Each structure stands twice: as C-alpha cells, then as structure tokens.
C-alpha cells in the first residue's frame, strides 16, 4: 500500500504557491482549537493529528496544554512544521498507511483530507486510526459532502495568490476534484481528488472498522455568487462535516 502518487506534488506545490498567512490566522486557529476541544467533549491529554501539513492546528492545541504528535507525508511540509513548532510537539514524517507508533492517544484527528484513496484505502485507514486510539479515546475526521461539491462548487474557478484553481466533480466515483496551476505555468496542473461520503455511507464504513459515530458537526460553505464564506452551514449545505468516532 502506498499513498496515491498525486498527493506529494499537490500539497508540495500548494504550499509553495500560497502566501504564508499563518501569522494572520492566529485568532482563527485559536477558535478552531477551542471548537475541537468542545467537539471532543471531555478532558484529554494527548492527540495525534495525521495529514498535519505545516502543523498549524497542532501548535494551537499545544498552546492549550495538549501533548501533540503529528504525522505528515510531504517532506517540505514536515521541514516547515519543525521550523515553526516548539519542541513539545512530536513531528513525524511518514505515510499513515504504513507508519507505526509505539503508544496510543486520547484523540486521533484527520482534518481536511480524508478520502484520498479508494474505499478500501479509507477502511484500512480507519482500522489504523482505531489502533492508535486508546480504548476510551476518540477520533475526529472531516468528511467531504457529495451534494455541495456536485451542485455548488463544481465549475467554480478562482485565483489565490500566485495560483489559480478550478473545482469539478467526478460523478461516477463521487469525488471532488481540485486542480491548481501557477500563473506562470498554466499547463502544469496538479490535482487532488477526494472521495465524498453521505453520512450513511461513512457510518457503514466506520462500523466495518469497529467504530461508531457519536457526533456530527457541520462545517462551512462558500457562497460563490456573493463570495461570502459562512463558517457553520447546515448539514445539507456544508462543504464538509466533522465526525466524532468512538470504539464499539
């Protein structure tokens, strides 16, 4: 098992092409960390965040006294994370389909990225996340919604810093498609493809992994006509929702 070959170049170039705005996001990250604690709903001491990028949310949670461990596949993002993070955060480079940890965690999270591979890949990942959770621990995972990407986002094009992007939807495989290119090299396109799941679909998959959804939290939505982002939309209109999982 290896992660899809598009993953490393997509996230590498996305990081290179975007302006570094983390310093401008302090308030947002603090609110997000607070929201995560509310969604977990009980005191916890340790957390593993996979697909952690440059570790922004890990640093926000570390500042709240949580013992953070991160796992990220893209070497450039891990370098950036280590440069920015305090020594209290345990930063790892590796593939979450194969990487192992010697300990378990109160919380395992995967924000903004679930759905990279096939359904079998996702099921394998859920089983691995279960092994990383303590028996009384939980997981938090962001799930992309089919209807938003099918009916609202598909066809939308936008400029972001030195890059442009366009959304589309793969109906046959129920996947959101997000293609990026640099303004100076529009012929060199990198694309991410993430499987979208309705609640009943992801619930059935979690059951196969011995996990039960114990919380559902709608995310935000973009109104492309008004160019306004709503941080919390209805479950029927959000671009993604977050699920909390506990072991059966």
UniProtKB/TrEMBL annotation:
Keywords: Methyltransferase, Transferase. Its EC number is 2.1.-.-. GO terms for biological process: methylation. It is an enzyme of class 2 (transferase). GO terms for molecular function: methyltransferase activity. It comes from the Bacteria. InterPro entries: SAM-dependent_MTases_sf (IPR029063). The keyword Cell division does not apply. This is Class I SAM-dependent methyltransferase. It comes from Sporosarcina oncorhynchi.
């Amino acid at each position: 098992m290896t992660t899809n070959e598009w993953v490393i170049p997509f996230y590498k170039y996305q990081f290179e092409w975007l302006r570094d705005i983390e310093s401008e996001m302090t308030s947002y990250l603090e609110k997000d960390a607070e929201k995560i604690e509310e969604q977990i709903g009980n005191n916890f001491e340790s957390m593993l965040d996979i697909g952690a990028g440059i570790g922004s949310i890990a640093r926000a949670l570390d500042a709240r006294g949580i013992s953070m461990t991160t796992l990220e596949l893209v070497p450039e993002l891990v370098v950036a994370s280590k440069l920015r993070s305090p020594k209290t955060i345990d930063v790892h480079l590796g593939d979450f389909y194969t990487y192992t940890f010697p300990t378990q965690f109160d919380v395992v999270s995967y924000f903004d990225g679930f759905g990279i591979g096939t359904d079998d890949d996702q099921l394998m990942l859920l089983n691995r996340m279960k092994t990383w959770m303590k028996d009384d621990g939980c997981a938090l995972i962001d799930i992309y919604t089919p209807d938003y990407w099918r009916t609202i986002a598909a066809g939308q094009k936008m400029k972001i810093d030195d890059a442009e992007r366009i959304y589309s939807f793969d109906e046959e495989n129920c996947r959101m498609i997000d293609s990026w290119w640099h303004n100076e090299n529009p012929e060199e396109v990198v694309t991410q493809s993430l499987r979208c799941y309705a609640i009943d679909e992801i619930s059935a998959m979690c059951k196969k992994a011995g996990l039960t959804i114990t919380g559902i939290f709608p995310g935000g939505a973009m109104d492309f006509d008004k160019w306004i982002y709503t941080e919390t939309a209805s479950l029927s209109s959000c671009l993604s929702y977050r699920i909390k999982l506990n072991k059966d």
